[in-house]
């Protein structure tokens, strides 16, 4: 069986756990603790190790969905899970104090995943905070990772259809990039 | 799987009825003082103890025996993750609540134990000279002392 | 059957007063209602014909017909001219002369009517580079004027909707009078019946082909407005349905009916647009719907699967950013198409091969992306094309295909 590890990263409160729940076909494994850091994100619980969900595709493939803790103090988990990953869904909540800065930080941390596979950016909570617009994110991604085409979407992490669109786009981009690279190799 | 009802109930000594948000344990001077007190007693009880940290469930250091601030913070984060993973495994296997977690290595081991009735965890690193049984007993005693001390302070 | 005609030429009003603009627009609209005036009034100085005050220094491009407006006490000019105050008969007469001149200028390959819009031709430039920058709408383009355009659907399409929609699907495929747009290389100028697809999605949907005709002009008008980057609002009226209100300053629109219903019933459509000061309140209820959603819809409806008139068949295109699929009515194939054209410059034929979609769907995709302002252009004809082999659909089951089946997409 081939496993495809997709990470869900992003700041605390971006909707990573919810996104995995929207996609997983098994009951998700969550490692949540009571959140004592209400200044950063006003929510009851926070992921402290990982979330896990999966989608089994036939007898051959399993897509493993790992949600990472959003806080940097858990960056050892980022390192551990990053090693097996082929793709990243980066969620950024638009109602954060400085969401573009959040994008910067996580792209700096996980940007290399684009070379291993691909990245898609999902901007969440645009219903409560419409600004900055999605163009700003796309522009920033172009500045930070010139020459790379990274899909940027708005998404509601609770919406399975939207999260499927994000996941499918990520996979389409990964496969297409690989196909183009193979074509160029053959041509060379 | 986990929801709020399954998480340990939180009692903070600094909590006031009029306060909209309880003070986090790692920011509560009373809790920090209690943690420092029990940890210093811990070192007296067990000479094979290398390091000990009391941390919040979500990975903030409340107090530590060692002075390496960076390492203390890192241990707190990792212990938090380990505790949560242990809880997740126990829950998934339906074997009840996690009592403690042991990581046994070549030259020592780490014991993690939740402070009863609190959203805090004791993480202690012993060298190989100690028996696991004694280490567990001492760790349980320290965790219980922490709970008792916080409760009495709050009362 | 209701007799209607299509707008065939665009008319730009440059440097005229708001009253002059309003009068001209009204005359044309009235004429269009009555007799099928083939002119579309746009906020652009890059139209087929231009009406410019005689005392304003202005040089038209070779393809354009210049009409001078001679105001009171103004000196007569050579060439086509009309005298203020403008009246309807004079205007229609001068436009007939302009139309005649345009007809003579058309090259044989473009024997049909043409709608011209400005297109920069640089090495690699955004195809609609002002589009996504809201700040550009803060400054009003001096040459832009208020105006309106009355557009009518193809009469056959109207009749088809009444009589043949379900009972004679083959009749729907009868070619309507079409502008002689050049299809992209490899794409088929398809008027033949297409397999039924979900009309709500983009790639490969053609079921309402005839109703698309009216969207050609709407697409050109919207493209023109966006190109000019001035703060503007517009209304698209659809007979018996509702009005779509657009505020370009906020990149938003409102419509009380789903766009898919517009597609199925769009028999008579008119667009009216006007400039507004940047500080004026929005004409849509914000946040409204994203303009990308409307442009995606119109771009995919228009031009009957042939290239938009502002696009060049010999150019290759690449996405500047992915479309926001979560807010667009999209098909799974659109993701693969975006992945392909997001990673390399492609023309319609190459996109078709890379994404495993029909050439017509590829052309529609390019049209929509262009209208949305998502494309950059490669004009370097010597660049080696990317060869995709094997085509992804025939590859031995990538994860994308498997997941697609698994998720029932």
UniProtKB/TrEMBL annotation, chain A:
SUPFAM superfamilies: P-loop containing nucleoside triphosphate hydrolases. Keywords: ATP-binding, GTP-binding, Hydrolase, Nucleotide-binding. The keyword Phosphoprotein does not apply. The keyword Flavoprotein does not apply. InterPro entries: Gliding_Motility_GTPase (IPR052705), Gpn (IPR004130), P-loop_NTPase (IPR027417). GO terms for molecular function: ATP binding; GTP binding; hydrolase activity. It comes from the Bacteria. Pfam families: ATP_bind_1. Belongs to the GPN-loop GTPase family. This is ATP-binding protein. It comes from Croceicoccus ponticola.
């Amino acid at each position: 069986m081939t496993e495809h590890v997709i990470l869900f990263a992003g700041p605390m409160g971006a909707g990573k756990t919810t996104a995995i729940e929207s996609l997983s076909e098994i009951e998700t494994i969550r490692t949540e603790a009571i959140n004592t850091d209400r200044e950063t994100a006003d929510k009851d619980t926070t992921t402290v190790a990982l979330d896990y969900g999966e989608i089994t595709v036939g007898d051959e493939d399993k897509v493993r969905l790992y949600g990472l803790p959003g806080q940097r103090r858990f960056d050892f988990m980022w390192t551990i899970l990053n090693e097996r990953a082929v793709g990243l869904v980066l969620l950024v909540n638009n109602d954060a104090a400085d969401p573009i800065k959040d994008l910067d930080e996580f792209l700096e941390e996980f940007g290399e995943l684009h070379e291993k596979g691909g990245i898609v950016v999902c901007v969440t909570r645009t219903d409560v905070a419409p600004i900055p617009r999605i163009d700003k994110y796309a522009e920033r991604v172009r500045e930070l990772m010139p020459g790379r085409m990274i899909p940027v979407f708005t998404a509601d992490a609770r919406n399975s259809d939207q999260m499927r669109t994000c996941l499918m786009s990520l996979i389409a981009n990964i496969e297409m990039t690989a196909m183009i690279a193979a074509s160029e190799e053959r041509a060379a | 799987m986990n929801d709020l009802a399954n998480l340990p109930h939180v009692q903070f000594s600094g909590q006031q009825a009029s306060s909209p948000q309880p003070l986090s344990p790692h920011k509560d001077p009373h809790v920090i003082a209690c943690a420092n007190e029990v940890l210093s007693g811990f070192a007296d009880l067990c000479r094979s103890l290398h390091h000990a940290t009391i941390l919040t469930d979500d990975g903030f250091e409340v107090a530590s025996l060692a002075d390496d601030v960076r390492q203390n913070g890192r241990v707190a984060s990792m212990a938090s993750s380990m505790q949560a993973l242990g809880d997740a495994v126990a829950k998934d296997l339906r074997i009840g609540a996690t009592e403690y977690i042991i990581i046994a290595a070549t030259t020592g081991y780490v014991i993690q134990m939740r402070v009863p009735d609190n959203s805090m965890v004791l993480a202690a690193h012993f060298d190989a000279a100690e028996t696991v049984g004694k280490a567990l007993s001492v760790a349980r005693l320290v965790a219980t002392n922490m709970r008792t001390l916080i409760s009495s302070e709050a009362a | 059957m209701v007799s209607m005609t299509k707008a065939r030429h665009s008319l730009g009003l440059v440097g005229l007063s708001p009253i002059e603009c309003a009068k001209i627009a009204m005359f044309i609209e009235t004429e269009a209602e009555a007799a099928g005036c083939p002119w579309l009034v746009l906020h652009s100085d890059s139209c087929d014909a231009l009406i410019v005050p005689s005392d304003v220094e202005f040089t038209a491009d070779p393809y354009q017909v210049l009409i001078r407006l001679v105001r009171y006490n103004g000196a007569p000019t050579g060439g086509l001219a009309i005298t203020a105050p403008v009246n309807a008969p004079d205007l229609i007469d001068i436009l007939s002369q302009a139309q005649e001149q345009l007809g003579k200028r058309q090259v044989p390959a473009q024997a049909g009517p043409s709608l011209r819009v400005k297109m920069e031709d640089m090495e690699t430039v955004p195809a609609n580079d002002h589009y996504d920058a809201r700040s550009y709408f803060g400054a009003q383009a001096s040459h832009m004027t208020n105006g309106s355009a009355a557009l009518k659907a193809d009469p056959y399409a109207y009749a088809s909707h009444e009589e043949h929609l379900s009972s004679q699907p083959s009749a729907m495929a009868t070619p309507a009078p079409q502008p002689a747009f050049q299809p992209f290389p490899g794409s088929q100028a398809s008027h033949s019946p297409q397999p039924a697809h979900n009309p709500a999605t983009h790639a490969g949907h053609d079921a309402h082909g005839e109703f698309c005709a009216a969207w050609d002009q709407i697409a050109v008008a919207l493209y023109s407005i966006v190109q000019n980057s001035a703060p503007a609002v517009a209304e698209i009226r659809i007979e018996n349905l509702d009005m779509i209100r657009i505020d370009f300053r906020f990149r938003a629109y409102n419509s009380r009916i789903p766009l898919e219903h517009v597609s199925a019933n769009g028999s008579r459509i008119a667009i009216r647009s006007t400039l507004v000061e940047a500080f004026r309140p929005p004409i849509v209820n914000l946040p409204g719907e994203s303009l990308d959603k409307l442009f995606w819809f119109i771009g995919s409806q228009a031009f009957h699967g042939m290239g938009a008139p502002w696009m060049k068949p010999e150019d290759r295109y690449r996405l500047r950013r992915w479309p926001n699929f979560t807010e667009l009515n999209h098909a799974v194939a659109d993701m693969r198409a975006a992945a392909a054209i997001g990673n390399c410059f492609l023309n319609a034929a190459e996109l078709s091969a890379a994404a495993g979609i029909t050439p017509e769907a590829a052309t529609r995709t390019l049209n929509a992306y262009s209208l949305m302002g998502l494309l950059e252009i490669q004009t370097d004809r010597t660049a080696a094309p990317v060869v995709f082999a094997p085509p992804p659909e025939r590859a031995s089951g990538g994860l994308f295909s498997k997941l697609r089946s698994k998720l029932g997409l």
